[in-house]
Write a structure and sequence with these properties.
The protein is of the alpha+beta class. 26% of the residues lie in helices and 29% in strands. It is built from eleven helices and 16 strands.
């Protein structure tokens, strides 16, 4: 049931002013914002994020394109006895021994995983299954990109997990302004779970995660040409959902009371999904001859 089931499309007892009278009454409008005011980044941000709410949060996990160096033995030399390695060295030429030594000492690149929450996020298509995330720029970076943007553009892969109330504190800790070589996974204590089709892991604590491949990206720039956001569109390749989420009568429907997702509001505010209602869409063939519809179309 809706909060006001007795209120239909227009009810003069609840809204005594006619529509045009309400629109003409300028004293009812709190703020007028024009293009010049919207160019002020802070004011437009606060105004929009506090009004365009609630917003879902994308918990994005990515891997760096180059990784971090990790010195280790080569696979070929591991497991051989000292005598075997000496004998192998005798059979090699000077150049081959030098090349072998360089290979043993060369750093093995281990991808550095990144994890960050993004509140400019939503689903944009179910066929093909596609999500969108808008990632803000980093003014401290030479190219203006945050680690997440750089990783997605370079590897063309990422995972997106839904944040639930049960681990929202840990998820919030990943928004820390740590340097690129610091792992948000370690700081938050969250668990990376190996993905199946993409390299970045997804969050094991999340009951719903998506493995994504980059479809395309779009840059958003301010009027002065400075990069403000990188919008990435991800094709969902694999979904991981825990069994307890689903409605027994509808196996493809997630019960929100079980997922308990958190949403982003204005300022430092977060929202909980605590109540919902069903509202069927009107069907033209069923309502076209009703008195309410006829009166509305005939201007009463």
């Amino acid at each position: 049931m809706t909060p006001s089931p007795e209120l239909k499309r227009r009810d003069e007892s609840r809204f005594p002013l006619r529509v045009q009278e309400r629109l003409d009454n300028v004293t009812m409008w709190k703020v007028h914002v024009g293009p010049s005011q919207l160019s002020v980044e802070l004011s437009s941000c606060q105004l929009m994020i506090s009004a365009i709410a609630p917003r879902p949060i994308a918990f994005m996990s990515t891997l760096s394109p180059d990784g971090t160096p990790n010195l280790r033995e080569t696979t070929e030399s591991r497991g051989k006895s000292k005598e075997e390695r000496v004998e192998q060295g005798k059979e090699q030429s000077k150049e081959e021994r030098a090349e072998s030594r360089e290979q043993r000492l060369a750093p093995t690149l281990t991808p550095n995983p990144q994890l960050a929450p993004m509140s400019y996020f939503n689903m944009v298509s179910h066929n093909p299954p596609t999500i969108m995330v808008s990632i803000q720029s980093d003014p401290k970076s030479p190219e203006g990109l945050k680690d997440t943007s750089r990783n997605v553009l370079s590897t063309r892969q990422f995972c997106c997990s839904i944040i639930s109330e049960t681990f929202v504190e840990a998820a919030n800790y990943t928004s820390i302004d740590a340097p690129p070589d610091v792992s948000e996974w370690d700081l938050s204590g969250l668990t990376p779970r190996q993905s199946e089709l993409v390299k970045p892991p997804h969050v094991a604590e999340s009951a719903f995660s998506m493995e994504c491949e980059l479809s395309h990206a779009h840059e958003l720039r301010r009027d002065d040409g400075v990069l403000s956001n990188t919008v990435v569109f991800g094709r969902v390749k694999r979904i991981h959902a825990k069994e307890f989420l689903f409605d027994p009568e509808d196996p493809m429907k997630v019960v929100l009371e079980r997922l308990r997702p958190v949403t982003r509001l204005g300022g430092l505010g977060y929202g909980r999904v605590t109540e919902m209602f069903d509202l069927p869409r009107p069907v033209w063939d069923k309502v076209k001859d009703t008195p309410e519809v006829r009166a509305a179309l005939n201007g009463r």
